[in-house]
């Protein structure tokens, strides 16, 4: 009830759905006070977490343990297209408002139940959170440091990918069926099972009987090649090198002035996780560590080589890629620079077409300046 259901219905609301969030009586959803700042607490308003995942929804309070409350839910379900709930399996049935009951009064109803382990699994009654689901599914083992220590992610993979995204996908498919004259359906979302299903690269390693590829630094995408790796910069920041395809790696090597590295690539026979790969990773790490992050941004961001900075959450929020206001400022500044450039002025005098202002900041080859390291 913290992330999967709220985020799934948030995405539906963003698509135009009218979402009514039902909370228990009294204090309402416990998420209102979760991660609540002192300012929100003083203002007696829900915290940013609650506001973020419930934006654009209507809200009401219903006591499902009372007959009057259940009658309200039955009336709502009779007219609803979709019901999403995140109780443990069986709770809604025990309350008298499970799928069998609701589908009788509304055969077109799409009923989506999101739980940790699914309605019919051996662990159906067990409690859990994101960390437990990715632990069981083999995903957490793949999020590991070089020494094999699992990394505690601050991105809830099973909740958001396994729970919310899977729910939205299946809900839309079910609504499509209903729109074509079909009946509603019960959708059973297991976050653990979905996370397991999405662990694709690890499944490839298992299918190939390649145990080394499952270990940190042993596979194509987990540190076994220099062209797809993370490198620390002089100022303690990180550069993400994603030059997985040969053409990107060659462009990257050329930009570094290390053309002799261009043929040392997995697609040309370099052994993944092998001696040459490990040696080149060390060589490249030394080069990257010699300069601060901004130097690499200035050099590599204008080049089509799949090399990018590792931004903090705060920096990402201020980046023009995600912040329309910053983007417009950058575009306006770039357009003004183009208009004042002597070549641009001469071209304008001769009636040449103007550069598309929406493309100017991206087509000029000038990297954006962002972040506190400027």
From TrEMBL:
GO terms for molecular function: transferase activity. Residues 338-374 are annotated as: Disordered. Keywords: Transferase. It comes from the Bacteria. Pfam families: CoA_transf_3 (PF02515). InterPro entries: CoA-transferase_III, CoA-Trfase_fam_III, CoA-Trfase_III_dom3_sf, CoA-Trfase_III_dom_1_sf. This is CaiB/BaiF CoA transferase family protein. It comes from Paraburkholderia denitrificans. The lineage of its organism: Bacteria, Pseudomonadati, Pseudomonadota, Betaproteobacteria, Burkholderiales.
